[in-house]
Structure formats: C-alpha cells, structure tokens
Here is the input.
Amino acid sequence: MVDASLLDALIATIGANLRREFPNKIVHALDGDHDVASPRALTPIFFGCFDWHSAVHSHWALVRLRRYASAEARARIDGWLDDSITDAGAAGELAYLARRPGFEMPYGIAWLSTLTAELAVAGDAAAARWRGRLAPLEALARDRMIAWARRLPVPIRSGEHSQSAFALALAIDRSRALGDSDAAAALADAAERLHGADRGAPIGFEPSAHDFLSPALGAAWLMARVRDPDGFAGWLDGALPDLGRGRALEPVATVDRVDGKLVHWDGLNLSRAWMLVGIADALPAGDARAPALRAMAETHGRAGVASLEQATYAGSHWLPSFAVLWLTGPLAVAGSL
Here is the structure.
C-alpha cells in the first residue's frame, strides 16, 4: 500500500512540471527561419517537463494516477489535463510531428501510444474527450511504431531513449489493451525476430554510466510478452541463465543528481524493479527464479522511490512517471495502490 503522502507528492510534482516551459531541451530540426520558435509554440501540449518525451509520459502518469487519487486530487488533475489537451494543441502537435517522421522515435512515440491507450482504458467521459482530441496523434504513433519495428534490422541495445526493446514492449501493451490485433502481431513478430535468438546477454557489463534502462532486462521484459510461460522460461535459460539463480542485482547508487545524465541511475533502479517483476510474472508457476526476482525488484523499487526525496529538476521532471509505472504496473496489469 502506497502512503497517501507519496501519492499526493507525485501528483503535485508532475502537475507543477506539466506547464513548466523552461528550462527546456528540444531536439529540433530547422528547415528555415520559420522554425525558430519557443517550445510552447512548437509543441503546444507537450512543451513542459524539460523535454517532449517527459511531457508525454507525465501526462500518462497523471491519467494513471486518476485511478487512485482522492476526489479533490482527481478534480485538480482533470483541470490540468483539460487545460493541456486541447483541440488547438493537438492540431499543433500533429502539424509538428507530420513534418518530422523520425522525431522522438522510438521512445517518445511509444510513450504517446501508452498515453492514448491509458485514456482509452480509463473508461470515463473526460478521458474519452482527451483521447478524441489526440486521435490523429494516436493513429500516427501506431503506424510509425509498426513501420519502424518492421524495418529495424537488429535490436538497439541501449540503456537510454533509443532502446528498441522498451519501446516495443510499450507498443505491444498498447495494442493488446485496445484489441488492435494487427499491430500486436506485427510488433510481436519484430520482437521475436530481434530477440528470439538472444543468448548469454552480458548483464555483467551493465550498467553504463548513463543508463536508465537495462538492455538485458529490457529484452527479457519484452520477450515475456511474446512467449508463453514455458517458452519464455526456456528463452531466459539461454539469454540470462544466471538471472534469479546467481549473484543478485543490487541497486545502483547515483553520485550526482544535478547532472542530467548521471541522475539516470535513479531511473534505472525503478525500471529494473518493474522489469524484474514482469519477468517473474511471466515464468511458469513454481519457477524457482521468481521469488529471487521479486525480492530484487522490491529492493530496487524502494531505492528508486527514496531517491525522489533528493531529486533536483534534472530528475524530478521525469522520475515521478517511472515511480508511477513501478508502483502501479504496466498498462495491461495496472493494479491497486
């Protein structure tokens, strides 16, 4: 059970960041003088939270937290989202993305798919209204993720935004949650092609100093979605034979929470936590690895949540979303706080 004060703190932090335009890091290709503009003018919904993808998953986190918030807090969230997700804002976002086919691929676009799917499963009138406004963006994100997955020749085994396994996992969850069987099949086929033959993943080389995702665990978290329990257990035997059987993974200790890259380790603890749980849950009943994996997940999750108390804006503009994913689960399995 999550302490109510933590829930309130997450909502307050994310809400404050949502419309905070500066400081801002934009990855923006200029075609001419007309493309020189403020973040708010370029992307009129997702301009806060320091960068576009953090703004997207911060919107997702608020939609998710509506499930658990008090009536007062939910009303506050709804006001923020109504102010943010407007018809005019969605038109501006679509105009920006339409001209930039590679923008925020795959990380930000995968989170955009997750946001719109979360709105779809929320099942209330306000969420339906926001999803309707974002419908053209939802279609664009779906199609771009499928096309990208089909043409990717090998995995992107990064510990940062470019990691292909993490984006594919989010996109698969979105497709299954919405009953989009064509998209789910295409993405699962890509996952199997890219990672089905993985053997001996070098998890001992992790983490790199800038990682907020584990390349090895990310692949396993993805394959947990596309193999049945026995098939996944066999895959894990080959890809990560010592996981849950050998030396336990220990949480990493962030040395600098002002440095925007070194603070990534706080997020790594949280992403390891949710990935380890997902891996454990996908194993056959009675698999001896599952208890060890869940114990490691709890240790990492506690470390990640504790880091929020020491966060500077280098971390606080994105870490709360990672905490929400750890505390509440992926789209398909979101549960009770």
